[in-house]
Design a protein that fits this description.
By secondary structure, the protein is mainly alpha-helical. 83% of the residues lie in helices and 0% in strands. It is built from 5 helices and no strands. α2 packs antiparallel against α3.
Length: 213
């Protein structure tokens, strides 16, 4: 894989291109110097001297430009590292927040499951069947499950209060009958006592009448 495929940033690509050009310029100068090495500098043709001088100036310019680009690329790398570090910290923060939300969701699901499976006391109430209740109070046929349960419980409460009132009334009637029976029993006992007293008082009279004259 070439550097062109690795480096995608336009600025860094331009730096690589300048580096390639400077390297190519160096190779050309080296080649020219090697070809001119067999001849002393005094014997070099004037055009060769001018070419060497021109290429050295171009190379120095390219190297200066490359140094500037290198410094700028280093600065860009530092900025990129800083932004990458900040982005990584943000990703870590979001990941931690996501984990916390996951744990909270799992906790809430557990709480919901516990509430749904909880054996509520109202579920043990001996309520009348829903069909029978709706037959008595059809206005609740469109209610949702929660509202319908409240209505059934309230209906059961009213029915039980009515039955309790009836029970209390029957209890009072029973207490009254018991009191009446006790009074009658006491009256009969008193009557028996009076009758025995009367019989005892009449015995002398009876004995007198039984005498034969």
């Amino acid at each position: 894989m070439t550097t062109d495929h690795i480096v995608q940033d336009p600025f860094l690509q331009s730096v690589l291109e300048s580096s390639t050009q400077a390297r190519q310029r160096c190779m050309e100068l080296i080649d020219l110097a090697e070809r001119s090495a067999i001849t002393s500098s005094e014997d070099l043709p004037e055009d060769t001297k001018l070419d060497l001088s021109r290429q050295q100036r171009v190379l120095n310019t390219e190297l200066a430009s490359l140094r500037d680009a290198s410094r700028e690329s280093i600065f860009e790398v530092r900025m990129t590292k800083q932004s990458t570090s900040e982005a990584r910290q943000e990703v870590d923060r979001l990941h931690l927040q996501l984990q916390n939300l996951y744990y909270e969701e799992r906790h809430l699901r557990g709480e919901i499951s516990a509430c749904e499976s909880y054996d509520h006391q109202y579920q043990q109430l001996p309520l009348i069947p829903t069909s029978e209740f709706l037959g008595v109070q059809p206005e609740h046929s469109a209610d949702d499950e929660r509202s319908l349960m409240f209505a059934r419980i309230n209906h059961e409460l009213v029915e039980r209060e009515t039955l309790e009132q009836q029970r209390q009334a029957l209890l009072r009637t029973r207490q009254g009958l018991i009191a009446d029976n006790k009074k009658r029993k006491d009256d009969l006992a008193s009557l028996d006592k009076d009758l025995e007293t009367f019989i005892d008082a009449a015995r002398p009279i009876q004995k007198t009448l039984e005498k034969q004259y």
